[in-house]
Design brief:
By secondary structure, the chain is an alpha+beta fold. The protein contains 6 helices and 22 strands.
Length: 418
């Protein structure tokens, strides 16, 4: 009996479940066939064509105005850059011969002049060079004496031939001897000049101000081997790669001297932007070390190959740096101005606002009244935007402060809830 009741209960539960499923299917089918509910009717408020501002509001807004101008459109490319040496005004200075450094007379960062002594060296071959100069001087003196004697003998012989006191053959011999003596003298003078130039190349150029040891260096004897390394240009000592006591030679740069009155800024320009860059175009540089300050220059060289790692080309720009403010290896932002080849009406970027989903400007139309106009814009660069529809050249537009006019305009569209 108990088993019979259990079976009846189970059958009843199953019947209820089947009825529930069928009812659910019927309801979902009806709901799918029923039309969707109609959306609630909405209406966006119409934006007025102009905005009126009270004198008090106008005073608080502190609006600024600008004139739409027709000018050549310039596209500004903004890339990263780094300050580098001007390789045309930089020198790596070596010793003129093998020798030992006795003294370094400058420090990194010091300004030097062309011809200024940078170091004193004990040149191993300078003593021998002094001897060669002395020998050349003696040879010149002997050649001068021989030349003078030959010319005197020739002059005397020319007088004696006329009186019959000297044979013509002897006169010819004296004439030949005079020509030979003159040639020897010229040769000895050339040899002396060469040796003296070699000596001057190693010798110091003169005393440096404030150095009590200069007189001994300049007034050296014929066997003194001390010489100097001098600066070939006006500039700043960037590096010193030797210390007193070290042996240096012509193959080893000891000093790097650079003229930083003009530096190079290397801009890394993506390949896709290279077509917009031309040599001679103006550039502006900004570095983090001097916020708010700009440095101007121009493009001087565009690399012929790309960096395979970055896909960029190096564009070198010359930037005047008279006060040495820019330092080598400083990073910054480089803006390259490139004309696009046509003129257009330009307005300041601050004059443009988004109104009703489109770009717009505000134009004054009487005291406290401003009309907004939808415009179509083009290239934006250097704080100005090209406008090819909606405004003409000569139109006065609201520059700084146009945002407040937009706020007042949109405020007027908010319904008054009483």
């Amino acid at each position: 009996m108990t088993k019979h009741r259990f079976l009846l209960s189970t059958a009843a539960v199953a019947a209820v479940a089947v009825i529930g499923v069928l009812a659910g299917r019927i309801w979902f089918s009806a709901a799918a066939k029923a039309p969707p509910p109609a959306p609630a009717a909405t209406s966006s408020p119409r934006i007025p064509d102009a905005v009126n501002v009270s004198p008090e509001e106008l005073q608080n807004m502190e609006l600024h105005f600008a004139t739409a101008e027709r000018r050549p459109v310039v596209r500004t490319l903004r890339v990263t850059g780094m300050v580098t040496f001007n390789k045309m005004h930089m020198a790596q200075v070596s010793a003129q011969a093998r020798g030992r450094v006795e003294a370094i007379e400058v420090a990194p960062g010091q300004h030097v002049q062309a011809g200024q002594r940078l170091a004193v060296l004990d040149y191993f071959d300078l003593g021998a060079l002094h001897s060669r100069v002395t020998s050349a001087q003696a040879a010149v003196a002997q050649a001068q004496a021989d030349d003078a004697n030959a010319k005197t003998a020739l002059t005397r012989g020319e007088g004696e031939v006329g009186t019959g006191g000297l044979a013509k053959s002897e006169l010819d011999r004296r004439r030949t001897a005079a020509v030979s003596a003159d040639a020897v003298l010229r040769t000895r003078l050339a040899e002396l000049q060469y040796q003296e130039e070699e000596e001057r190349r190693l010798m110091p150029t003169g005393p440096q101000m404030g150095d009590d040891g200069d007189r001994a260096l300049v007034e050296q004897g014929p066997t003194d081997s001390r010489g100097a390394i001098i600066s070939p240009l006006d500039g700043v000592v960037d590096t010193i790669d030797a210390s007193p006591g070290e042996i240096v030679d012509v193959m080893r740069p000891v000093f790097t001297v650079a003229d930083l009155s003009t530096v190079m800024v290397r801009a890394d320009v993506p390949a896709a932007e290279l077509s917009a860059v031309r040599e001679g175009e103006s550039i502006t540089v900004r570095v983090d070390a001097y916020p708010g300050r700009t440095f101007t220059g121009h493009v001087v060289h565009i690399a012929n190959q790309l960096d395979p790692r970055t896909g960029t080309a190096s564009v070198l720009c010359a930037v005047p740096n008279p006060d040495s403010t820019l330092r080598v290896n400083m990073f910054g932002t480089v803006e390259i101005a490139s004309p696009v080849g046509h003129e257009a009406v330009l307005v300041p970027d601050a004059a443009l606002q988004d109104v009703n989903g489109q770009k717009a400007i505000f134009v004054p139309d009487g005291t406290g009244r401003f009309v907004w106009r939808a415009v179509r814009t083009g290239i934006s660069s250097g704080g100005f935007t090209e406008v090819d529809q909606g405004v003409t050249a000569g139109t006065i537009v609201v520059d700084d402060g146009s945002f407040w006019l937009k706020a007042v305009l949109l405020r007027s569209t908010i319904p008054d809830e009483g």
